[in-house]
């Protein structure tokens, strides 16, 4: 497709292509067609990126808050100007509807503008000491950051991975997903065009395990930032221990949604169904396990099924599409296996459970109900367009089910009981909780999980501080 951007790696401001490098075929998930060939890094490329990142840190750590703010605000303006091109690229290589891709661009704009203000608020403090002595606490950039971003938010994830280190005064090597490289390169180019020194941010692609071992094996890297699966996150965390690199890990989830019998079921459904099938369910905070009080279970299930069946599935570039394809050929296969296992255990398939069409990676919006807890899909993150709906008797049982799994990224609850709302805010084991809302993110709000869903936060003041170290200076 002629309007798909050129693919390359960015090292020291140079677009690196060609040579004897291996390549990765980028596929449009709506058609299954190859739309680009991505060059993959060899060891020499990674060594060069590390060398440049070390130089970049020495440059950028001395930058003024105003310098950093200018770059971040400038990049935000450029992303606004390039919004349609960026969104179209994201849809072509990831599949989501254009409307969702445009929102992703605006997420980056908001985050970069927030960080542009936050650079002036990276305060230290002076301690109370006797006259003639002085003790201060300083926050300084941690050093070069290795940042790994997945494919599900091809613009937003690179924005998070680049924005925080740059705001903190760090350099960064971004290894975004090979399935969605042009989106990440588009975000990086906005920063470079806004005046970011070319040594400060690099973009490489390659075999994930080879790249991660090479970068984390270098003492130049002082921090790892990773978004992805729990299995891979644990592996990278182990690698990071060798050089004692700091880590921010945003890992998998299995979002519980508690629906109590005091709610307006129609209102809940009008929000929950759209939240479930956003990005074809390929969202780490996707509402997935609907834990519904018995009195409203049947009404909720039937209403959910009715709405799911009306969702318009199609190419994300089409104006009337509400849900696009899954991002790659692996995802429909994984959903098929999980649904088959659940049905074999006795779950009821209310709708969906099948692929759509004979090209691309489309999958029907699906609903399973009355699923045994030992079904794989009740214990593994499905990461797809499948809602799981089960009845429960009371609040105690519902909270126990919500907290049953080792994941703790996002949790949701719907109830009109104020005291219950307060209890749920305390008792649900998750890093982010939405009560009567599925909106749990914001540029000024920390984003991260607990338990197997990781540690540390992105976004908000916490996102910048995660890229800094604390130093105490005592003067006699």
TrEMBL record:
Molecular function per GO: succinate-semialdehyde dehydrogenase (NAD+) activity
Any one GO BP annotation for this protein: gamma-aminobutyric acid catabolic process
Keyword Methyltransferase carried by entry: no
Record bears the keyword RNA-binding: no
SUPFAM superfamilies named in the record: ALDH-like (SSF53720)
Domain Aldehyde dehydrogenase: 20-473
InterPro entries on file: Ald_DH/histidinol_DH (IPR016161), Ald_DH_C (IPR016163), Ald_DH_N (IPR016162), Aldehyde_DH_dom (IPR015590), Aldehyde_DH_Superfamily (IPR050740)
Entries under Pfam families matching the protein: Aldedh (PF00171)
The entry's keywords: Oxidoreductase
Gene3D superfamilies cross-referenced by the UniProt entry: Aldehyde Dehydrogenase, Chain A, domain 1, Aldehyde Dehydrogenase, Chain A, domain 2
Family: Belongs to the aldehyde dehydrogenase family.
Protein's name according to its UniProt entry: Aldehyde dehydrogenase family protein
Species per Swiss-Prot/TrEMBL record: Altericroceibacterium indicum
